[in-house]
């Protein structure tokens, strides 16, 4: 009975020891690369924080989207297994930072550098928009004034046509030469007829 209790007490430590010593059960080494910046804009420092083994040799390379190497260095991590590398991008674009550890592990991180829209940029945009709005408002007011002027001229023209029409209708109509000739001919014919119808003296 005592032997069974002793063996069961020893079984757990032995099992843990076997698991720790077994191949493939070792703890994963803390390799990591973190890219940070205050703004990720051209002219602002980009920090590459590398985490690895203590005093481990590392190789840092920063490349553009075409794969051209722009910056980097070979160095070692410090007593805490870290190293921070700073780089200042000169222009916008897509970039990669690749860190190769002495153990053969390679980590690549991508980041984007671009200009941010500032309050001054927004102020310029607002100024341009409001300037356009003011010019459009002035043009609309000018067109309104022109339309009012055209409407006034059209109204006066219509009124003048009406007045002239009434005036012309009040004038005596002058007969044409043809009308005067026909009237004279008809008058002569009537007078001849009347003369013919008078009784002749005996």
Report what the structure shows:
- A hairpin with a 4-residue loop joins strand 3 (57-64) and strand 4 (69-76).
- The chain has 2 domains: 29-113, Macroglobulin (MG2) domain (Immunoglobulin-like, Sandwich); 117-173.
- The strands form 2 sheets. It has a 4-stranded antiparallel β-sheet with strand order 4-3-6-7, with no helix packed on it.
- The model is unreliable at 23-27 (pLDDT under 50).
- The protein is 46% helix and 25% strand.
- The chain has 3 helices and 7 strands, in the order H-E-E-E-E-E-E-E-H-H.
- The chain is an alpha+beta fold and 202 residues long.
- It is rod-shaped and about 175 Å long.
Q: What is the fold's blueprint, element by element?
A:
Blueprint: H1 2-21, E1 32-37, E2 46-51, E3 57-64, E4 69-76, E5 82-87, E6 93-101, E7 106-113, H2 119-170, H3 177-197
Antiparallel strand pairs: 1-2, 2-5, 3-4, 3-6, 6-7
Shape: rod-shaped
- Which ranges are low-confidence, i.e. pLDDT below 50, for 5 or more consecutive residues? 23-27
CATH architectural arrangement of the largest domain: Sandwich
Strand order of the largest sheet: 4-3-6-7
Approximate helicity band? 40-55%
Counting DSSP H or I runs of 4 or more residues, the number of helices is: 3
The CATH topology of the largest domain is: Immunoglobulin-like
What number of domains? 2
Spatial gap, N to C terminus: 192 Å
CATH superfamily of the largest domain: Macroglobulin (MG2) domain
For the largest beta-sheet, the strand count, sense and barrel status come to: 4 strands, antiparallel
The multimeric state of the shown protein is single chain
Average pLDDT, all residues: 81
Which class of the largest domain in CATH terms?
Answer: Mainly Beta
Give the total of beta strands. Answer: 7
